[in-house]
Design brief:
alpha/beta; Rossmann fold; seven-stranded mixed beta sheet; three-stranded mixed beta sheet; EC 6.3.3.2; FTHF_cligase-like_sf; 5-formyltetrahydrofolate cyclo-ligase; FTHF_cligase; nucleotide-binding
Length: 196
C-alpha cells in the first residue's frame, strides 16, 4: 500500500474512532433501533432467508438486536470468526448473547465452526465498516478480513455496510485490494450505490 494512502486511512480511522467514542448511550440505543429497522426492511425487500452479519462492538452501530430478531423469525444468520491466516470462518447465530473474544479482541459467536465456504449460501452480506463513500467504496478497520472475503467470492450476493449516517463520505482513501459494497445501512436510511 502506498504510504500516502496508508497515512490517509490511518488518519481517517482515528477521526472516526474518536467520533464514535463521543456518542452517548442514548444515541447508541437509538442508532441500534434504527439499524434493526433498516436491516429488517432490507431483508424483507430482498426476500433473504440466509444472511451474514457481525456482532457489533460497543462503539459500532448495534447489530445484536437485529440478529436476535432475525433468528427468532427463522432467518439463518452467519457470524464471522477471525482466523490467524486472515480468513474468516463462520458460525450460525442461535439468538443468545453468548460470545467469545476473538483474535483481535472482537466479539465472536460460540457454536459449531463452519469454514469460509459457508458464506456461498447466503442471500445477503451485512458487513462492518469504518466508512463508505458515495461511489460504494468501503473502508474497513485495516485488518483486511472482509476485503479478502469479498474479493475471493466467485458469486457474491449484495453487500451492505453498516455505518452511522455521518460515515457516508464523499470519498474514502482506496487501494487496489479494497472492495466496494452494494449499499450502506445507517440508523436513518438505506443507500444503494451506483456500481463504479
Amino acid at each position: 500500500m502506498p504510504a500516502e494512502i496508508d497515512h490517509a486511512k490511518r488518519a481517517l480511522r482515528a477521526d472516526l474512532r474518536e467520533r464514535r467514542a463521543l456518542l452517548s448511550d442514548q444515541q447508541r440505543a437509538a442508532a441500534e433501533a434504527g439499524i434493526t429497522a433498516r436491516l429488517d426492511e432490507l431483508i424483507a425487500a430482498r426476500g433473504a432467508r440466509s444472511v451474514s452479519c457481525f456482532l457489533s462492538t460497543t462503539t459500532e452501530p448495534g447489530t445484536r438486536a437485529f440478529i436476535r430478531a432475525a433468528v427468532a423469525r427463522g432467518i439463518r444468520v452467519l457470524l464471522p470468526i477471525t482466523r490467524a491466516d486472515g480468513l474468516l470462518d463462520w458460525a450460525v447465530a442461535d439468538g443468545d448473547d453468548e460470545v467469545n473474544i476473538g483474535l483481535h479482541g472482537l466479539p465472536e459467536p460460540t457454536g459449531e465452526i463452519l469454514n469460509p465456504m459457508a458464506l456461498d449460501e447466503v442471500d445477503l452480506l451485512i458487513v462492518p465498516a469504518a466508512a463508505v463513500d458515495r461511489s460504494g467504496m468501503r473502508m474497513g478497520w485495516g485488518r483486511g478480513y472482509f476485503d479478502r472475503t469479498l474479493g475471493s467470492m466467485q458469486k457474491c450476493p449484495p453487500v451492505y455496510a453498516v455505518v452511522f449516517d455521518s460515515e457516508i463520505l464523499d470519498e474514502v482513501p482506496r487501494d487496489v485490494h479494497d472492495q466496494p459494497v452494494t449499499g450502506a445501512v445507517t440508523p436513518l436510511r438505506t443507500v444503494v450505490f451506483p456500481l463504479s
